[in-house]
Amino acid sequence: MAKAGIIYNDIKPIACRTAFELQDQLKRCGWEVVMTTGAGGILGCSRPGSPKCYTASDALMPPGFDEEMAFAVVLGGDGTVLSACRQVAPRHIPLLTINTGHLGFLTEIYLNQLPSAIDQVLNGAYDLEDRAMITVQIIRDDQVLWEALSLNEMVLHKEPLTGMCHFEVQVGQHALVDIAADGVIISTPTGSTAYALAAGGPVIAPGVSVLQLIPICPHSLASRALVVADTEPIKIFPANHEQLVMVVDGNAGCYVTPEDQVYIHKSPYAAQFIRLSSPEFFKILREKLGWGLPHIAKPNSIELP
Fold it and tell me: Which CATH number, 3.40.1030.10, 1.20.1600.10, 3.40.50.10330, 3.90.226.10, labels domain 3-131+269-289?
């Protein structure tokens, strides 16, 4: 019997109702269905007294979600999609993402398109798109204290945010660079349209194999976003007396002390998305962010005197 999964946001009534309706539909079609909530992919919060409050990245898989699962449907907003990616990426389960939230930048379709989308998926009429993820680790004395898979970004800053921090950053085997800023962001191409974009970073097409480093409100005109190959790891050494806060994908995170280092590298796991038509990144930019819309006042022709 073919197997499908459903991951839903259990604090949204519409997502809950749709999840159980979809479960019944798939079972009538002869599919085995395994359901879970997106809560299992929410990152734990470490505290100074308990710095190891985390679950290893490859241990977040919900029961019943395995290599036999053909696909999983995600019902929620971008936060649920991010959580679902952390849960299933190690098993390479394709995700059909349905927007029951607001912006839904990471979702494939809206809720009213679900019936036709399911028919299309059951008939195998879809493409798969891989999105690179990063592994973020806190290391102290060669021991991993905390780690997480990230589809979007890692943010490291002082608590509260509005306070100057000093960082030493090393990309691969290159020399250390010094950055003075309110914080730093390490972003994937997928995350380039999230916090990284708001912080002044460039938009990067999903298929480009890079990471970007963005200082938040840097204390220098020379400190600007840097794009590097994702084949090289990035190490961040906090050069502060106070502890810092690290947040991954806008979710929970952990404290970082002066004795710690943050280690970021491209994950061996990729998020895999079901695309019902050929991926069109610039169309998404136009529809969701208004990029490239025609100017209303653009003249149709130029009249010469």
Answer: 3.40.50.10330
